Amino acid sequence: MERIRCSGVWKIFGQNGNRVIDNWDQYRDLSKTELLKKTGCVVGVRDVSFSVTSGEIFVIMGLSGSGKSTLLRCINRLHEPTRGRVYIDGEDITDVSQKTLLDIRRRKIAMVFQHFALLPHRRVIDNVAYGLEIQGVDKRTRYARAAEVLELVGLKGWERQYPHELSGGMQQRMGLARALAPDPEILLMDEAFSALDPLIRRQMQEEFVKLLKVVQKTIVFVTHDLHEALRIATRIAIMRAGAFEQIGTPAEIVLKPKTKYISDFVRDLPKAQFVTARDIMDPPSKWAVRDDQTGEQVINKMNAEGIWHAYVVDSHRRICGVVDYRSVIQGNGNSVLDYLSRDFPVQDQNTFLEKLIDVAARTSVPIAVIDENKRLVGVVSRERLLETLAS
Ligand SMILES: Nc1ncnc2c1ncn2[C@@H]1O[C@H](COP(=O)(O)OP(=O)(O)OP(=O)(O)O)[C@@H](O)[C@H]1O
Question: Rounded mean pLDDT of 337-353?
Fold first, then answer.
């Protein structure tokens, strides 16, 4: 379900921003400084359109000054877009009164910043309950909820400490707990993990992704760190000079950069750490045969697809085993089950390329890829692995 939609959003800082937009062709080739000199304006965001669906982690990534924070702030109108529309759950929030806007923000949207305002003289649990207090939630309910979200972010046992008694990483969790307490549907996060040192940061990223599997939220996450973006994103938008240069899944960004700018960005990345089985697998239909088929039918299928192995699945798409071309063609069994071998490599669809390479090195059978219900969802062949590595 679509939660957020930005349509042709511009943010120009300075007077007469609309005039700059109307005459953009005239200004597009100017540097930032030249534009400022000529018009007194600075481009924050330039004609950006995208939508984010429920459950997504949409990461806006780009170098300093590319417009990430400005765009994020346009989503909840902390910055008033100069032009364009922003829809939250289908409602055009660029067109609502200040009162309605405040109400939408309070009910649906929370923001998490790199540095958030702690209340130093209040205990951790008071800090987390504070947002609910402002909303007029009664004391018992807000403290029960605060305790619940503190447990969720791994801070159970720290409720009665003061913020300064917590490490940076724990304070960041506290910030997250505070944002989660009112149960917002949308979280806007601006460099939320940037203050953490690398090891803790990585741990936070992993926990964050895990946490989001438990609490379904829609996230827009700003970062200047490409590794962070690739690790946590469902989709990434790379910004450059106020505009989107490319939007795509981490694998699309890494494997199919659309412009030289992006390919320069991703050139030295260890691809194998960001591409998963899901990104490169062939569809299961190419490799799967049903357990009630005859040997002849299976050979026909293997000939047609040009494959040496076929995975045999039951009516629930669960794998029964694998058959290889030679044994089926040389054999005289009736059913494909007569040739079944249960010795095959199988991996979860989220397995990273680096692990798949290890697995492929130990077997000649293509790797079966399964989902959380253990159903065959694809196959990664040796050819596909080599192709990906060479790309
Ligand atoms: N309040 C403002 N007034 C004038 N110009 C601004 C304002 N806020 C941002 N800008 C300009 O808009 C452009 C985009 O800034 P923004 O802060 O969104 O970039 P960013 O990608 O978030 O950068 P960083 O990673 O450094 O925070 C920059 O050129 C900046 O100078």
Answer: 93
CATH number, domain containing residue 212: 3.40.50.300
Residue 72 CA, ligand 1 centroid: distance in Å = 11
* Averaged pLDDT, 310-324: 95
HSE of 47, CA atoms in CB hemisphere, 13 A? 8
Any atom of ligand 1 within 6 Å of the Cβ of 62: yes
Give, as one character, the DSSP assignment of residue 366: P
The preferred substitution site among 39, 63, 66 for testing ligand 1, maximizing ligand atoms within 8 Å of CB, is 66
Calculate how far, in angstroms, residue 149's C-alpha sits from the geometric centre of ligand 1.
33
Specify the CATH number for the domain of residue 286. Answer: 3.10.580.10
Q: What is the ipTM of this complex?
A: 0.97
Do 196 and 152 have their domain in common?
A: yes
CA distances in angstroms from 14 to 30, 43, 81, 85, 333, listed in the order given: 16, 9, 12, 20, 79
The string of pLDDT tens digits covering residues 240-283 is 999 999 999 999 999 899 999 999 988 888 888 889 999 999 99
Q: Is the same domain home to 315 and 229? A: no
Structure tokens at 239: 């910004």
Q: Is the CB of 35 under 6 A from ligand 1?
A: no
Does 240 contact ligand 1 (Cβ within 6 A)? no
Q: How far is the CA of 82 from the centre of ligand 1 (A)?
A: 15
